[in-house]
Amino acid sequence: MEQVLSTINNALWSMPLVILIVGAGLYFSIKMGFPQIRLFKEMIRATSTAGSSDKGLSPLKSFVFTSARSVGVGNISGMAAALFFGGPGSLFWLWILAVFGCTVAGIEGILAQTYKEEINGEFRGGPAFYMRKGIKNPALGKTMAALYAIVIVIGIVFLMSPVQSYNIANGISSAFHVPTIAVGVAFSILIAVVVFGGLKRIGDVANKIFPFMALAYVALALIVIVTNISEVPKVIALIFKSAFGIDPIMGAIVGTAITRGVQRGVFANEVGQGTSAITAATSTVNHPAKQGLIGSLSVFIGTFFVCTPSVIMMLMTGCYNVQNPAGGFLYEGLPGVETGNGYVSASINTIIPGIGEIFVAVAILLFAFVALLAYYHYSESNLAYLVGGNKTAVLILRICFVACIFMGTLLKAEVIWTMGDIAAGAQCWINIIAVFLLGNIAVKIFKDYDRQKKNGVTEPVFDPDTLGIKNASDIWKK
Hints:
This protein has 478 residues and is mainly α. It has helices at 2-12, 15-31, 35-38, 40-47, 59-70, 77-86, 89-114, 127-134, 138-176, 180-195, 199-227, 232-243, 254-269, 275-280, 288-317, 341-349, 356-387, 391-408, 413-454, 464-467, and strands at 117-119, 122-124, 321-323, 329-332.
């Protein structure tokens, strides 16, 4: 079974997908005039503006929700997996993905807002909605939309959510010596209570949990880095040498470093995957481009404020392993330690002995909890696309979601990560093609926002008819 999953994963995450994702980011960055540089200050300002309603989230809550999903398991234990499979050079390619890929996230956010709908009193949207409404060929649009929605529901519920619950159970069990099955039962019940409360409760919980834990994690990572500050030049050199195959040991896996860096970046920050656009559609803004800027910022936050400190502190302290595809290890700093939380815990223990396992367990619990809430929201939104407001279907989805969270606590690390990567890869292939097909519409909408800002308009307003945008949501016309 493991071999079959690995074969599927390798086929999906081949170099063509990496080129498509990074290439899309570079292409649209040029067309939009590199907004990630010009408008970085505006990205920050956009998150603080008002705009909440009973049907959706405020820009700030949307940003927190998206960032909280990004600053989750993918940015902590996921970075350990990146080192294990791709070596130190994987971080460099993660940086490349973030710098250019943030524009892809912006495109997705703009399209999600433009084509969102109101279902059962809540805003819904995302790739399935903008594929169906935006792609000129109706048959192609409907086919891609249905395929994406099915892949999201199946992939997130059955393949991706177990990644989060596995890491929670593993962390809590190791730190507090609690049986894994007991953690699985308790956590599944907790998740059930929240997801049965709807979108507003999910957003409120994320808004309360995320900021405190994210700051605490980054602060502790920085303490480890500052304590080992003399190692910075050596670590930076290792990252670049490994990324370009110059390092005599890590040079053998430079291709893997590229694919794993992008792969882990997609899993951590959702670039090209389209899932962040589902959250983007729930936000209440005056112009779709504002949500696009917010989505771009969340990629930066996850990559440079959590992923990067995580990897650097592991490299500084030598608390990681790198597998040799031919067998054994290219580097083994933690003999016998399974890839994941243990690398980060060991790094923290080098300066504060005994606290690593407990701190990482709590961090993973809170981050993964919020990530799972986002996952549920993604799956329900796409189920709504497929079956409308059918409440029986939603009930079945909730039961399956909670059951799969419990099952995830019982699986092995290698199987868990491969399952999650398969789901993310399938989503990327469908969505990134749609981004190329619809990207010019998003560019036109972005340029309208940019033009209004240059003309002194503090809060630009979107009028789809003026721009000739067909099939835009009626919400913008009210």
